[in-house]
Amino acid sequence: MGKIAAAALGLLMLVTVLGGAGAGGMLSGFGSSGSTQPSRAALTDIPSDYLALYMDAAATCPGLDWSVLAAIGKTESNHGRSTLPGVHSGANYAGARGPMQFLPPTFQSVVAKHPLPKGGATPPSPYNKQDAIYAAAAYLCDSGARDGRNLTDAIYAYNHADWYVSKVLTQAQAYASGARFGADSAPTAAALQAINYAQGQLGLPYEWGGNGPSTGDAGFDCSGLTKAAYAAAGITLPRTAQEQYDAGPRVPAGQQLKPGDLVFYGNPDGGIHHVGLYTGGGQMIDAPRPGKAIRIEPYRYRGDDYAGATRPVESPV
C-alpha cells in the first residue's frame, strides 16, 4: 500500500513523518460486537456518499468498524477532497492512486481475490470511490481485521508506520459514537493537539529528565513528553508522573478511556513511576525507559502495574 498523500489535515496532521516497528496487539473498542454510529464530528466532516460507502463496505468484513475505513479515507485523501496528484488522476510520488491511495499491483491483487459489487467502474478502478473503499475493506480484512483480532496489524499493513496506526485509530475514535464508546467518546481539540505533538516526537530517544529538543535535550523522559504534549495544547501539567497523577482529574475506574487521557503505572500512594499518552484503540505513546525510543505500544500488557488515568482539561497548577 502506498504512503499517504501529504495533504493538510487540520489538527491531526503530523509534525514529522517517522516510521517505526510494527504495531501489534488487539484493538479494543472496535471489536465484533456490532457497528458504532457516526458521531457529530463524522456527520459534519464526511460527505454523505462516502459515509454510506464506508458503512456498507465495512459490513463485508465481520469485526471491521466503518469508522476505521473512514479514518483511512480521511488520512489518505480527506475523503476524496484532496487535489494532490494521485487522488483523482495520475499517481503520487510513491505511485499510489485514488481516494484510498492504492498501489496498482495491490489493488489488482485485491480485486482478483475479492470481486467488487456492481455500481463501480468497469473494469474496477482505484480512482472510483466505491471500488477503492470496498477494496480497502477487503485488504484490511485479509490483513487481520476480521473479527477485530489484529486490527492494529491490519492498519500497519496498509501503511507501514506506527504514527499511521496511531493517527487512524485516533481519527476513528473521533468518528465513532455509541454504547461501546460511551456517550461522548470524541477527543477534545486539546487532546488531539497533544497527540499530534507526541506523534511528532516518535523515534526520539528516552532521556532521564529530558524536556525535548526545544530545550536542548536530545529527547524526553515519560512525564517530560506528556508535559510538553499538553503544553503544545495550551494546558500546563506538573513535571513528574506522580504530580501529574495527583493533579487529575481522574477517569473513574471502569469508564471508557478517550484519546488524550494520561495513563499511569505504579502505586497511586506515592509510587507512580511511569505515564503515557493514550491514543485510542488500546495504544499509547510513551518514552518507555533508557535505551528505548519514544514509541507506540499497548497501554495494558502482561504483568503491568496500571494505576489509572487522568483527563487533563485545564491547567491544574
List the helices and strands and how they pair.
Elements: E1 37-38, H1 40-45, H2 48-58, H3 66-77, H4 104-113, H5 129-145, H6 151-158, H7 162-175, E2 176-177, H8 189-199, H9 222-232, H10 241-247, E3 262-267, E4 271-280, E5 283-286, E6 295-298, E7 306-310
Antiparallel strand pairs: 1-2, 3-4, 3-7, 4-5, 5-6
Helix pairs in contact: 2-3, 2-5, 3-7, 5-6, 8-9
Write up what this structure looks like.
The strands form 2 sheets. A 5-stranded antiparallel β-sheet has the order 6-5-4-3-7. A two-stranded antiparallel sheet has the order 1-2. α2 packs parallel to α5, α3 crosses α7 and α5 crosses α6. β4 and β5 form a beta hairpin. With 317 residues, the chain is an alpha+beta fold. It folds into 2 domains: 161 residues, Orthogonal Bundle (Lysozyme), CATH 1.10.530; 122 residues, endopeptidase fold (from Nostoc punctiforme). The radius of gyration is 19 Å and the shape is elongated. Helices cover 34% and strands 10% of the residues. Belongs to the peptidase C40 family. Keywords: Hydrolase, Protease, Thiol protease.
